[in-house]
Amino acid sequence: MTLIQIVSGFVAIGLLVYLIAALFNPEDFS
């Protein structure tokens, strides 16, 4: 894997975790 693929993978995982957290804790992401 190239560095770009690794970085983009971390970004995608981070966005998914953020969206899931926002769904379960909407009051924290107002």
UniProtKB/TrEMBL annotation:
It holds the Pfam family Potass_KdpF. The chain crosses the membrane at residues 6-24. GO terms for molecular function: P-type potassium transmembrane transporter activity. The keyword Plastid does not apply. Keywords: Membrane, Transmembrane, Transmembrane helix. It comes from the Bacteria. GO terms for cellular component: plasma membrane. NCBIfam families: potass_kdpF. This is K+-transporting ATPase KdpF subunit. It comes from Jezberella montanilacus. The lineage of its organism: Bacteria, Pseudomonadati, Pseudomonadota, Betaproteobacteria, Burkholderiales.
